[in-house]
C-alpha cells in the first residue's frame, strides 16, 4: 500500500497529491510517469511525476477530474492509500545545453512540463515559458513556472486573466520578434500540441511533445498505447512519452483516444448516480470533470 501524505485541490477540478513511495522518489527523473490503481477493481491510470522528495520518500502528482477513476482519486484524502503505484516508467527527458528553449504548457499539461522545464533550466539553458488555460480557474503552477523561467507568458483563451489568446499565438509572437529558438517542448491537449507543431514546422524549430494515449500495462506488452511516429509504430510507455512533434500522427492519436468514450461516459454516470444515492438525494452529487 502507498499512503497519501497530502491531497488538495489547486484549481477547479485539479488536484495535487503527495504519495509515500521512497524507491520511486529516489530514482525518478524528469519526464517519467507512474501507473496508479486505487483498489483491486480499479482502473490503471498513468500520471506524470511532477516532483519528488527523496528525504521524505514522496512523489507528487497532479491530475484533473475527467472520469470515474480520477473522480475517485480526488475523493482520497491524506491517510488513504493506493493499492498500486508503479514506476518510474517511460524514458526520461534528454537534457543538454540546447540554448534557448521554449516550454509550453496547456491546461493540465503545465504539471508534466514543470519538472522538465526545471531540468532544462538546471542544464544551463535559457528558458522561455508559455503557460495557458481556457480560463483563469483552470490555470495552474504559474508561480512555480515563473520562478524557473527567464521569461514567461501567461494566456487564457477567454481573456479572464493575463494575455487573451492561445499559447500558439504567444509562440508565434516570439518567432515574429526574431527570437532564436533552439528547442520547443509542448505538453497539453492533443489539439494544442498539434497546433504548436504546425507553428514551429515552417521555421524548422525542433519540437518535442509528450503523448497521452490510452495505456494499460505500461510495459510494452499490451500494445494499447501504440502511436505512429514518422510512419513507424511506437509504444508510448517504453519508447516515450516524448516524441518529435513534427513526426507524430495526431489524427490517429485522436481517434484512438476516443475509442472508449461511450464506456467512459457510462461509468461516470453510474458513479455519480451511486454517489447521489449515498448522499440521500435523488440527484447525483457533484464531482466535477467531464466524461
Can I get a quick summary?
The protein has helices at residues 22-27, 68-75, 110-122, 142-148, 167-176, 190-200, 236-239, 250-257, 261-278; strands at 2-11, 14-20, 33-37, 45-48, 51-53, 58-64, 81-82, 84-89, 100-106, 126-133, 151-156, 163-164, 183-187, 207-210, 226-229, 232-235, 242-244. The two termini are 28 Å apart. By secondary structure, the protein is α/β, with parallel strands linked by helices.
How would you describe the overall organization of this protein?
The chain is an alpha/beta fold and 291 residues long. The chain folds into two domains: 2-89, Translation factors (Elongation Factor Tu (Ef-tu), domain 3); 100-256, Nucleotide-binding domain of ferredoxin-NADP reductase (FNR) module (Rossmann fold), CATH 3.40.50. Helices cover 29% and strands 30% of the residues. The protein has nine helices and 17 strands. The protein has helices at 22-27, 68-75, 110-122, 142-148, 167-176, 190-200, 236-239, 250-257, 261-278, and strands spanning 2-11, 14-20, 33-37, 45-48, 51-53, 58-64, 81-82, 84-89, 100-106, 126-133, 151-156, 163-164, 183-187, 207-210, 226-229, 232-235, 242-244. The chain has a seven-stranded mixed β-sheet, with helices on both faces. A five-stranded antiparallel β-sheet has the order 5-6-2-1-7. Helix 6 (190-200) links the parallel strand 13 and strand 14 (207-210). It is globular, with a radius of gyration of 19 Å. The two termini are 28 Å apart.
Amino acid at each position: 500500500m502507498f499512503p497519501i501524505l497530502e491531497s488538495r485541490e489547486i484549481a477547479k477540478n485539479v488536484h495535487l497529491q503527495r504519495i509515500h513511495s521512497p524507491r520511486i522518489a529516489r530514482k525518478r527523473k524528469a519526464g517519467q510517469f507512474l501507473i496508479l490503481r486505487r483498489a483491486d477493481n480499479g482502473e490503471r491510470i498513468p500520471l506524470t511525476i511532477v516532483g519528488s522528495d527523496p528525504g521524505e520518500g514522496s512523489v507528487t502528482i497532479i491530475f484533473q477530474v475527467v472520469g470515474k477513476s480520477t473522480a475517485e482519486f480526488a475523493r482520497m484524502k491524506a491517510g488513504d492509500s493506493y493499492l498500486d503505484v508503479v514506476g518510474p516508467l517511460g524514458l526520461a527527458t534528454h537534457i543538454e545545453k540546447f540554448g534557448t528553449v521554449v516550454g509550453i504548457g496547456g491546461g493540465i499539461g503545465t504539471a508534466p512540463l514543470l519538472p522538465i522545464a526545471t531540468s532544462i533550466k538546471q542544464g544551463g539553458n535559457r528558458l522561455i515559458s508559455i503557460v495557458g488555460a481556457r480560463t483563469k480557474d483552470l490555470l495552474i503552477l504559474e508561480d512555480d513556472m515563473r520562478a524557473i523561467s527567464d521569461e514567461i507568458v501567461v494566456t487564457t483563451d477567454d481573456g479572464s486573466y493575463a494575455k487573451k489568446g492561445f499559447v500558439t499565438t504567444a509562440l508565434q509572437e516570439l518567432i515574429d520578434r526574431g527570437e532564436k529558438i533552439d528547442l520547443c517542448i509542448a505538453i497539453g491537449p492533443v489539439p494544442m500540441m498539434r497546433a504548436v507543431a504546425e507553428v514551429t514546422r515552417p521555421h524548422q524549430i525542433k519540437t518535442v511533445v509528450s503523448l497521452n494515449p490510452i495505456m494499460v500495462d505500461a510495459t510494452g506488452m499490451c500494445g494499447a498505447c501504440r502511436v505512429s511516429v514518422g510512419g513507424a509504430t511506437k509504444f508510448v510507455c517504453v519508447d516515450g512519452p516524448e516524441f518529435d512533434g513534427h513526426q507524430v500522427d495526431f489524427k490517429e492519436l485522436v481517434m484512438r483516444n476516443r475509442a472508449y468514450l461511450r464506456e467512459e461516459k457510462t461509468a461516470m454516470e453510474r458513479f455519480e448516480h451511486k454517489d447521489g444515492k449515498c448522499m440521500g438525494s435523488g440527484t447525483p452529487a457533484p464531482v466535477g470533470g467531464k466524461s
